[in-house]
């Protein structure tokens, strides 16, 4: 779970950077930043999924965080595939929901990490 938390923390830095860019009026962040953000988030998601599958006695928080990160990933895919790749401005409401779900999931994951 710690490895997943580190990967998600790195993804969060990229996500916060992109959100700041969008909220300052830039319609699209650089493609490389979106890909790095998504790559670290995907690596965190897979790491957490494998941990949940393989480790028997995990805190419930880990499972709840996993579900939340899956929901955030759907939002990320929507933003990337339907907007970024089509060079359309990222819709702020979808971006904010994506970010909120991801941040809440990250906090829940940290609770699980510190429960162990």
Helix and strand string, N-terminal first? HHHH
Strand content: under 5%
Got a strand count?
Answer: 0
Q: What proportion of the residues is helical, as a percent range?
A: over 70%
- Uncertain segments are none
Global morphology: elongated
| Biggest sheet features | none
The number of distinct structural domains comes to 1
Number of DSSP helical runs = 4
Cα-to-Cα separation, first versus last residue: 10 Å
Classification by helices and strands: mainly alpha
Q: What is the arithmetic mean of pLDDT?
A: 96
Which radius of gyration do the C-alpha atoms yield? 14 Å
Give the secondary structure arrangement, pairings included:
Blueprint: H1 2-23, H2 31-54, H3 60-84, H4 92-115
Helix pairs in contact: 1-2, 1-4, 2-3, 3-4
């Amino acid at each position: 779970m710690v490895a997943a938390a580190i990967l998600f923390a790195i993804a969060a830095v990229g996500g916060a950077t992109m959100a700041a860019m969008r909220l300052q009026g830039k319609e699209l962040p650089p493609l490389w930043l979106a890909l790095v953000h998504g790559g670290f988030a995907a690596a965190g998601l897979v790491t957490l999924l494998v941990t949940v599958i393989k480790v028997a006695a995990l805190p419930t928080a880990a499972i709840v965080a996993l579900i939340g990160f899956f929901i955030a990933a759907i939002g990320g895919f929507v933003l990337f595939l339907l907007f970024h790749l089509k060079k359309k401005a990222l819709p702020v409401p979808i971006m904010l929901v994506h970010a909120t779900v991801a941040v809440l999931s990250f906090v829940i994951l940290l609770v699980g990490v510190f429960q162990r």
